[in-house]
Amino acid sequence: xxxxxxxxxxxxxxxxxxxxxxxxxxxxxxxxxxxxxxxxxxxxxxxxxxxxxxxxxxxxxxxxxxxxxxxxxxxxxxxxxxxxxxxxxxxxxxxxxxxxxxxxxxxxxxxxxxxxxxxxxxxxxxxxxxxxxxxxxxxxxxxxxxxxxxxxxxxxxxxxxxxxxxxxxxxxxxxxxxxxxxxxxxxxxxxxxxxxxxxxxxxxxxxxxxxxxxxxxxxxxxxxxxxxxxxxxxxxxxxxxxxxxxxxxxxxxxxxxxxxxxxxxxxxxxxxxxxxxxxxxxxxxxxxxxxxxxxxxxxxxxxxxxxxxxxxxxxxxxxxxxxxxxxxxxxxxxxxxxxxxxxxxxxxxxxxxxxxxxxxxxxxxxxxxxxxxxxxxxxxxxxxxxxxxxx
Length: 391
Known about the structure:
Layout: H1 3-16, H2 27-39, H3 43-53, H4 60-72, E1 77-86, H5 93-96, E2 104-107, H6 111-125, E3 141-154, E4 160-166, E5 169-179, E6 185-190, E7 193-200, E8 208-213, H7 219-231, E9 236-238, E10 245-248, E11 251-253, E12 266-271, E13 273-280, E14 311-324, E15 328-341, E16 364-369, E17 376-382
Parallel strand pairs: 1-2
Antiparallel strand pairs: 1-3, 3-15, 4-5, 5-12, 6-7, 6-9, 7-8, 10-11, 13-14, 14-15, 16-17
Helix pairs in contact: 1-2, 1-7, 2-3, 2-4
């Protein structure tokens, strides 16, 4: 694994340990944003982000670029990174140099208009699945950085639909399939109990791991075991080596007689699902290393490597959807961090200037004038501007 991938997976495991109910999340969508913040953070904010990232902050900028390159190389996945700043924010050149070309946009200071622009970006980058960034913009918002991921996976072996069982009731959209791969299932023994894992393979090289623990295990424990299996920290016994009988949670291994030679096989019964979740990352800031980055103390400037303008994190959110069906798996995630101007800069610029802002945000007219003669070459009135396009 790449260093950045390992680090992002560790964040997945940490986030998974906090899960208590049905949800969906993507540490892969949050990790590069944390890395970018760490690259420009200082003091306690830098130390906390280092711990959440799982690598030194001095490596964070390069690791973020490495991670984004990994995402680009995954078949079936599209990703995007966006940055918007107020006109008064002067980014540090060395920090901004690590951003993708064309990622930088402008905040007008009109929170409603900026929100609509960000929402259009999210909808355009997720094919309309996620229509809003949900950043809580205010007039003081000076910087927003966001990521978008869209994943589409087709199964190598599709499922067939049937009436599925759920908690003893037969009222769900069930899925069933059989594959000649006994090692598609495995059982691991974690500290909290046993976990059965079934790997559903996708044609593009992306798989979905289904995980079932014992009844006494909580969501965080089961997901944590799955993360351990992916990282190699936890070993599993493959299906071909499991004993007959009840070999793991929800798993039975048995012999049967057949009239013709047949290879070993794995039958999987599961259900379709569709999940949507909204996460406020600042509700558990310590999990993401954001406690000091969001602390609005007098004179606070936790991100001096991002900009000379003193910025404090004001909002950190993720919206995500996921569907599992007979044909494949689809997921979309948008994460966003918003920072506000906070106090005076610790590094005062040597010059003073005056800024003006003009917003043509309602119907207006125009003239095209030949400068030398004063001839009006064209005139018009704008009442229906061109719609925003994601590209």
